[in-house]
Amino acid sequence: MKDILNEIVDWKRRENEHLGRLFDGRELRAMVDRQCRDTPPSLARAVAESGTGIIAEFKRKSPSKGWIKADGSASTIPLAYQNAGAAAISILTDERFFGGRDEYVSMARRSGVTVPILYKNFVVDESQLFRARLCGASAVLLIAACLDMAQCAGLMRTAHDIGLEVLLEMHSEAELEYAALGPDLCGINNRNLGTFNTDVATSLALAPLLPGDAVKVSESGIGSADTVAVLRQAGFSGFLIGESLMKAESPGKELSDMINRMKKQAGTCS
Ligand SMILES: O=P(O)(O)OC[C@@H](O)[C@@H](O)c1c[nH]c2ccccc12
């Protein structure tokens, strides 16, 4: 089977080259310096301090599932997530594989989303960081499997320089060494990006090996309040949830039902 991650990263490099002909990195950086004087809301704080810890994802399509919600609107769904109690929103901005766009972040902001927004893409080049900041994101995802340690450290430095936080995604014990770079949040992806299969056991196995003071986020394959409870018990304070919400007729309502179940469970425990 062809490794999907390799295919995506190859494409990303070509796409960056093409986009770089329209605006090069230096121009984008100058635009950031001129236009972005605000301090975006902190994803790490939102996750650590919110009651739910849920980062609800706007994802219209995926390589494993195809179209999940082709007509899903970035002007209504992220805001519905926020109203349902999401701590933060994740927005897929890759177009070819996930049906996303940078504009979806600005559309969500314009619709009234004030919680932190995670810019979700396969970042391999700093021009993507500038684009993330320009469209209104608070944080970017960096994926250990796409970057060597030096590249990852460099991108993290640039992200911090322009006021973005970093959620660093890891998937295997070998990748945990990247956590020493000091990201704002440490993510464990339950999905193998080679095959796209998910298994929450990945988070449970790796959590004890992460630095004790890391803000820990479990990503992918989370579909119920029970799973969130198990992950919370294992030390996670953030839960990145996409498909199980997006495939519902009303993603906002689905999230609100899940949060109600979480609250009921917390009530029975105390
Ligand atoms: O839809 P799910 O299984 O709830 O997963 C959400 C999110 O974790 C997933 O979209 C994701 C995690 N890391 C990524 C990296 C790139 C693209 C997508 C992802």
From TrEMBL:
Keyword Flavoprotein: no
InterPro entries per UniProt: Aldolase_TIM, Indole-3-glycerol_P_synth, Indole-3-glycerol_P_synth_dom, Indole-3-GlycerolPSynthase_CS, RibuloseP-bd_barrel
Positions of transmembrane segments: none
Top-level division of the source organism's lineage: Bacteria
PROSITE patterns documented for this protein: IGPS
Limits of the Indole-3-glycerol phosphate synthase domain: 13-255
Pathway: Amino-acid biosynthesis; L-tryptophan biosynthesis; L-tryptophan from chorismate: step 4/5
GO molecular function, one term: phosphoribosylanthranilate isomerase activity
Chemical reaction(s) catalysed: 1-(2-carboxyphenylamino)-1-deoxy-D-ribulose 5-phosphate + H(+) = (1S,2R)-1-C-(indol-3-yl)glycerol 3-phosphate + CO2 + H2O
Known EC number: 4.1.1.48
Keyword Lyase: yes
UniProt record, GO biological process: L-tryptophan biosynthetic process
Keywords assigned by UniProt, alphabetized: Amino-acid biosynthesis, Aromatic amino acid biosynthesis, Decarboxylase, Lyase, Tryptophan biosynthesis
The protein's name: indole-3-glycerol-phosphate synthase
Lineage of the organism: Bacteria, Pseudomonadati, Bacteroidota, Bacteroidia, Bacteroidales
